[in-house]
Amino acid sequence: MGAEILTPGDARGDDVVLSWDGEPVLAVRLPRLADSLDHILADLERRHGPLADLGRKEKQTVVRILEERGAFSVRHGVETVASALGVSRFTVYNYLNRENAARPAE
Q1: pLDDT over 90, % of the chain
Q2: Tens digits of per-residue pLDDT, 7-50?
Q3: Residues 90, 69: one domain?
Q4: DSSP bridge partners of 5
Q5: Could you tell me the sign of the dihedral formed by the alpha carbons of 44, 48, 52, 58, in that order?
């Protein structure tokens, strides 16, 4: 996910400090959400091969996975995903709408 491990003394206010027996041991600096999206896309590409070369069904599956991971809550998330998949923003929105329409009403 792209987190960075630090010494507790280097931690900032938004870092997560982990303790053992009440003593700070290390700190974790989480990446910004936009950086996380790049890491998620790179991971999906390692698993599936070049995302732009996938078929329509596989691209729909990738969009579903990305939606479950919150990729579209990131500013410009749809544009970033569309570029990675080699499709238009409109196509990504269609995949999202198709997926949401297929879900049963709660």
Answers
A1: 58
A2: 999 988 878 899 999 999 999 987 666 567 888 899 899 999 99
A3: yes
A4: 28
A5: negative
Write out the residue range of the structural domain in which residue 40 sits. 33-102
pLDDT value of position 106: 58
The mean of the pLDDT values for the chain is 87
Q: Are residues 55 and 97 in the same domain?
A: yes
Phi and psi (nearest 5°) for 19?
A: -120, 155
Among residues 74, 78, 87, the alpha carbon closest in space to that of 33 is found at: 74
Please report the beta strands in the chain, taking only residues with DSSP state E, as ranges in sequence order: 4-6, 16-20, 23-29
Q: Are residues 26 and 73 in the same domain?
A: no
Q: Count up the domains in the chain and report the number.
A: 2
Both 26 and 40 in one domain: the answer is no
**Phi, psi (rounded to 5 degrees) for 18:** -100, 135
Same domain, 19 and 3: yes
Put simply, whether the predicted model's pTM sits higher than 0.85 gets the answer no
Please tell me which residue, 74 or 19, carries the higher pLDDT value. Answer: 19
- Identify the CA nearest to 42 among candidates 75, 80, 6, 97: 80
